[in-house]
Design brief:
The chain is mainly α. 49% of the residues lie in helices and 0% in strands. The model has no long low-confidence stretch (mean pLDDT 85). It comes from Alkalihalobacterium chitinilyticum.
């Protein structure tokens, strides 16, 4: 049984896609340099990943934190 709402599921799938397609190609570089390339940080900002749990009233997305048990 999954505790994710449709909105949570969409966000989860978007994040998975971002990590697989944008971050994973740079994984070795990130590990070696111990830093995240600026273009990945900017893309994460564009996707709203820095404001996932921040309430909308404060400029975030306002999603709750849940676990997927399914």
């Amino acid at each position: 049984m999954s505790l994710l709402t449709d909105e949570n599921l969409q966000m989860k799938l978007m994040i998975r896609s971002f990590v697989e397609n944008e971050v994973e190609p740079y994984a070795q570089q990130i590990e070696e340099e111990d830093r995240i390339p600026e273009h990945l940080i900017e893309k994460a900002k564009e996707l709203g990943l820095f404001g996932i749990s921040i309430p909308e009233a404060y400029g975030g997305i306002g999603l709750n934190t849940v676990s997927d048990t399914g």
